[in-house]
Amino acid sequence: MSSLSEKDRPIVQLLLSTGTCPRCILRFCCVGSQMLYRHPHKDLMKDLQEFLRNSQEKEDTVCLDVADPPCKRIRLEHGEEGADDLNHNGAIPSAGDGNSATESSAVKVCNVCLGILQEFCEADFVKKVCQKVNSADYQFTSFVFSVSLPPQLSVREHAAWLGVKQQMRNLGLALAKDDIVQLKEAYKWIIHPQLSEELGVPADGKSLFEVSVVFAHPETDEECHFLATACPDCFKPAKNKQSVFTRMAVIKALEKIKEEDFLKHFPCPPSSPKNLCDALEIQCNNGAVFVAGRYNKYSRNLPQTPWIIDGERKLESSVEELISEHLMAEFKADSFNFSSSGREDVDVRTLGNGRPFAIELVNPRRIRFTAEEMRRLQQAINDSSDKIQVRDLQLVTREAIGRMKEGEEEKTKTYSALIWTDKAIQREDIAFLDDIKELKLDQKTPLRVLHRRPLAMRCRLIHTMKSEYIDEHHFRLHLKTQAGTYIKEFVHGDFGRTKPNIGSLLNRTADILELDVESVDVDWPPTLAD
């Protein structure tokens, strides 16, 4: 085995004799050749045995050339001690000894990786993973593979490393833990080409399609529990975690615990388990897809999002649901997140070019749509209801959505309000409103939203107003305002919480009967040709 040198012999001897699999031995010998790990398990075992035999023969040759007989006598004495003592002392068992560590380790579960670099690298397991992927019916052009390992693997690897380190130290050599090839890395070296060939697409670390495997080993679950007593600061309950014994917490504790304290609680080398790991879950997940557009809302009895108070639904539908139900069905997503450039009240219409919105579709099975397919999807949404219409429906990136959110506070919005006054008015009574420019408002959080927004004083601008007389008690007011201005409160004053207001400017009681959003001046998403 050309990747191994004489300095690796004591590592190979020690680990083979204690029940470590060939691939883990390569990891501890710091072998970085990916191709070598892909060799069949049996071939690797034979290669390691051959490596040790060759090393032994060289040693024998050296000993025969030396005129000091004790060297040979010591070996002969060892030969009479039996396989167990030989294994313990690192010598090579005879080829015919069926109880030898080198032969038994080919069938035993590895005492370090718990079988992950054994059974779970084989073609049968790869096919099982690919069957799961194919049955999930995802669209993807590449994949990224992730693996979740039981935390006790870190404990076993630490124990094995301490044993190897001691062996190397006795020979005047050093082995840093960081030099050992990580288990996950070695596993991916082996599994990536097989998955890629079976799925017909390349492995790509930047792919949005993830195939993940979660391993568990119930037999050894409690092996890391002693660390909680030795390093209690490393194990703190977290909201999203079922157990405090996470992989990161265990690694942190292993970095902190003293060697002598570790060895008091855990065998070195680690014992061989009876059972392989279990592949608890094989999961697929596609990165989110983002769809944007603009919507018009023509109903005065439709909330933007589901209207639920104290667990009770108030209205049967919403803008969000009327749009998303079609997208969810076509993209075959698990869930969605709706966002928009501001929002209108349930009784407010949104006219003009509409309000920009974006929908994040979580874990979609289908991700590729042509421009024509998006046009048909838009038409399906529009045909399904007379309460809303969408336009400019398109696929966008996550980063592009930031432009919509910037517009919420920075851009302007145009409204049309139907206003009632208690005292009669004439045209000349409201004409002066047309001359007011950049009117500064102080608006306390409105009473109607105080239950869901913090109390604050907000300064807002009314850029322009244009009045349209209707009759003695009604007029329409067209306003261009800073985004975030509460228009209803600007009309009636909200019991003095918005100053000035239309009531105070006209010196009479005023109230708003209807409100329409005529434009949301956010230049996003891009306008599409019909």
UniProtKB/TrEMBL annotation:
The keyword Metal-binding applies. Residues 110-284 form the Pus10 N-terminal eukaryotes domain. One of its GO terms (cellular component) is nucleus. Residues 290-521 form the Pus10-like C-terminal domain. Its EC number is 5.4.99.25. Pfam families: Pus10_C, Pus10_N_euk. It comes from the Eukaryota. It is found in: Cytoplasm; Mitochondrion; Nucleus. GO terms for biological process: tRNA pseudouridine synthesis. One of its GO terms (molecular function) is RNA binding. Keywords: Coiled coil, Cytoplasm, Isomerase, Metal-binding, Mitochondrion, Nucleus, tRNA processing, Zinc. It catalyses: uridine(55) in tRNA = pseudouridine(55) in tRNA; uridine(54) in tRNA = pseudouridine(54) in tRNA. Belongs to the pseudouridine synthase Pus10 family. PANTHER family: TRNA PSEUDOURIDINE SYNTHASE PUS10. This is tRNA pseudouridine synthase Pus10. It comes from Catharus fuscescens. The lineage of its organism: Eukaryota, Metazoa, Chordata, Craniata, Vertebrata.
